[in-house]
Every structure is written in C-alpha cells, then in structure tokens.
C-alpha cells in the first residue's frame, strides 16, 4: 500500500487530479477492493480515485463473479467494469454486458468495459454495449476501452457501428495497437 500511496503522491505532485484504477473483483475476499476504497478515503482531499470494479476473470465464467462484482459496488466502487471477450462463450459475453448495465442503473455508477481487447474481427461486444447504453439512456456514462479488435472490422460493419456509437454517446478509448497501426 505504501508503494501505491507513493506513486499517487508523485502523480498529484505533477498535477494529476483524477485517477481511474481497475481493481480485480475475482478475489473471494475482495482484499484489493477494500484496500483501494480505504486509500481513496484517505486521499480524497488530494485526488479523486475512480475505482472500477473489474472482473478480470470474467463475470459469468468465474465462480460467484456476479455476486463479487455487486458486492464491490456495495462497498463503494464508483465504476463497474466487464471483459466480455474473456468470458467462456459469446453468449456469456453478451449477458455480462446486460448484467453490468442493470447493476450500473441500480447503483447509479459509471461503466467502463475492456471491450474487444483482442485481435479477432468477430469480437463485437462494443455494439452490444453501445446499444444497451442507448436503450438505458446512459449517454456519456459508459466507456468502451481497449477496443483493439475494431482495427480488424470490415468497412460495412464499421460504418454501421460508428452510427450506433454516435447515437449512444458512449466514450471510446482505442488500444495502443489501434493508434500504432494508423
């Protein structure tokens, strides 16, 4: 914890005011989550730590994954995450997005999904995320990050996707591979 506190103090000394950090929720004791929430409270006058409850091993593909994710929100995580392309099946990936959107509405938190962080042109969970954000009217409260599969999409699909992304108003953060390929 001291190393983390020191790293954050360096960031604050250089003008950083907001830090979004992903905390793995696939620990049955949620040790890291509890420690980060404690640290957030300790440092709240210096920096805003936006803690993402992030199910690194998946939500439906990890025993009690959904329950641990929701418990993290009850403990005080500000953002809910997902990693749909890492779930066992495509169907689990779609369902994981549906579940986090329901929880985001229930707890009034932001959403940040590592969405299609894979070199597979068939990994298209970003369209499901954008559609749910549009349906739930969560404009600007949803982020699709690490969207590296997008660089493999064909033109027709990308055209359709960009229309949906614009309508949904979600934030999109491309992976470093996408930027490097340009």
Automatic annotation (TrEMBL):
KW Cell division (keyword) present: no
Instruction: Extract the GO molecular function terms from the UniProt entry.
Output: cytosine deaminase activity
Q: Record's Gene3D superfamilies?
A: Metal-dependent hydrolases
* One Pfam entry name: Amidohydro_3
- InterPro entries, sorted: Amidohydro_3, Metal_Hydrolase, Metallo-hydrolase_Enzymes
Every Amidohydrolase domain range: 5-178
Q: What are the UniProt keywords, alphabetically?
A: Hydrolase
What's the EC number here?
3.5.4.1
Q: Which residues form the signal peptide?
A: none
Q: Which PANTHER family match?
A: CYTOSINE DEAMINASE
- State the name under which the record lists this protein: Cytosine deaminase
